[in-house]
Design goal:
2 copies of one chain form a homodimer.
Chain A: H1 19-27, E1 32-37, E2 40-44, E3 47-48, E4 61-67, E5 70-77, E6 88-89, H2 92-95, H3 101-119, E7 131-133, E8 138-140, E9 147-148, E10 153-162, E11 165-170, E12 182-185, H4 192-204, E13 208-219, E14 224-233, E15 247-252, H5 253-261, H6 275-284
Parallel strand pairs in A: 1-5, 10-14
Antiparallel strand pairs in A: 1-2, 2-3, 2-6, 4-5, 7-8, 8-9, 10-11, 10-12, 11-15, 13-14
Helix pairs in contact in A: 5-6
Chain lengths: ~290, ~290
């Protein structure tokens, strides 16, 4: 199972609009406040770190939901350096693989929300500073009254098949030898399936058909929704757009098996935390 | 086929970054500029209306792509009343049912882009006015340098099945007798499947399982991506949240057949342009 797909909390969204009720939840002895520095979670031995409810009480705080009866919040601490707590802020993308699915998902939701808050301090409609509301799930504009909702960007990520091989590509920014599924943001006015076909053609010059949905994954870096697809290429010819990819090539079944087993002589795919891994690995299972 | 899912143009996204090339495309004799007033397309006899490239040349203009060789743009004309052209601005949601799939999709893409531009004149990061770029597919901030991308909001819309019946709900804002599929925005940190389960429970108190993806549809009012799903309810008990729905009830197969055929005595579902219609109608076919 990829990271971030667990849903361990009741999001209890009806509670978000009750500001007084949220203050009461935060004051409860069983309330947990997960510590972040900006958008990075504090971890100690790979586990989330809690912060006392009275440390930086005015720092951005989001209500994540209920774990049974226990209210769960997260707080984005300010400071030019991380305030001293147990553990230290971590790169969630690297750390999530060693975490429980529940911890990873809760921290991922908070990370996506904090990333959104950090990028949306001003009203896109009139330019004045906005204020968080609804337990961190809205921002309100005092100037024009617009209610801003967190942004979630859908991405089509695709397993491109042709006979007994898969097409993988690599970005010039990636570590040497790293290959993955092609992917791109779904544009306005476009179906998921059309985005898949467009990206395959733009990035690798490949025409695809029979686009099938495989599964989804939130990816909070900063706020994507990965829509995992499989599709079939009409041929094996590849024409890479160097503005998008450094290379793309076909991997046969033996190579794909080696990539999944991490025994390939010179190449690798993303870890099991990424839906790209699942797209590749599930192809081996037919 | 629902509206807006056709993809008649080559979006030719590599051309978007070439400002001089776009000016040359706009000047070509075979260029077409679709007329909008704000975010509403001009229609004459149900067909898109063209505007001369030199009418309000500084009004927001987006490059939609190539129809064969012909460049296709859209322009959002300003004015407290619609400038006089052939036809008149129309509500695309109402008009799309009488249009060709190609016209509907092209106008839908432009409508989504113009709606985004109208709501994003200022930088959400630093508050200064931004400027359109990349043929209307970006906005750039001269203050902090942020590049803003059009927003696409994923929505889970679901056919909830239980035995030989479907659960439909109605919003208090809808016309009397109108029923449709339950739906809600996918939140940060959430899979599509989890959003489906959460919305079914929040809105109607129903627990669902076996969430399957059916298909997608862009819905440019103002910028949603509908992700059509089917799922199975664990029981028939319904507990409506009055903040979300006015009512929800089960419709048996005969009633659903009457809804699809538009012969139901007192109830109706959205027209075939909406993915909700497809979700309901395709259930009858098994």
């Amino acid at each position: 199972m990829p990271a971030f797909v667990d849903e361990p909390l009741d999001r209890a969204d009806a509670r978000r609009t009750d500001a007084e009720g949220l203050r009461a939840l935060l004051a409860r002895p069983d309330a947990r406040v997960l510590a972040f520095w900006r958008a990075d979670p504090y971890l100690a031995d790979g586990r989330p770190v809690l912060v006392a409810a009275d440390l930086q009480p005015d720092a951005p705080t989001v209500f994540l939901g209920l774990d049974g009866e226990a209210p769960v919040f997260a707080r984005s601490l300010a400071g030019s350096a991380p305030p001293p707590l147990a553990g230290a802020p971590a790169d969630l993308r690297m750390a999530v693989g060693a975490m429980s699915p529940a911890d990873g998902s809760v921290l991922g939701t908070a990370r996506a929300l904090f990333s959104w808050h950090h990028r949306h301090g001003f009203c896109s409609r009139c330019g004045v500073p906005t204020a968080p509301a609804h337990g961190g799930w809205r921002r309100l504009c005092p100037g024009c009254g617009t209610e801003h909702f967190p942004r979630v960007d859908p991405v089509a990520i695709m397993r491109i098949e042709q006979g007994d091989a898969l097409l993988l590509g690599r970005s010039p920014a990636w570590p040497s030898g790293m290959w993955s599924c092609l992917a791109g943001f779904v544009e306005p006015g476009e179906t998921v399936e059309a985005a898949c076909a467009r990206e395959a053609h733009e990035e690798a010059g490949v025409r695809v058909r029979d686009v099938r949905y495989v599964g989804s994954q939130p990816w909070p870096f900063p706020g994507s929704l990965m829509l995992g697809l499989a599709c079939t290429a009409e041929g094996r010819e590849v024409r890479v757009d160097p503005a998008e990819l450094e290379a793309a090539r076909w991997f046969d079944r033996d190579e794909v098996a080696a990539l999944v087993a991490r025994t390939h002589r010179d190449s690798a795919i993303p870890p099991a935390t990424a839906i790209a891994h699942r797209l590749v690995a599930s192809w081996l299972d037919g």
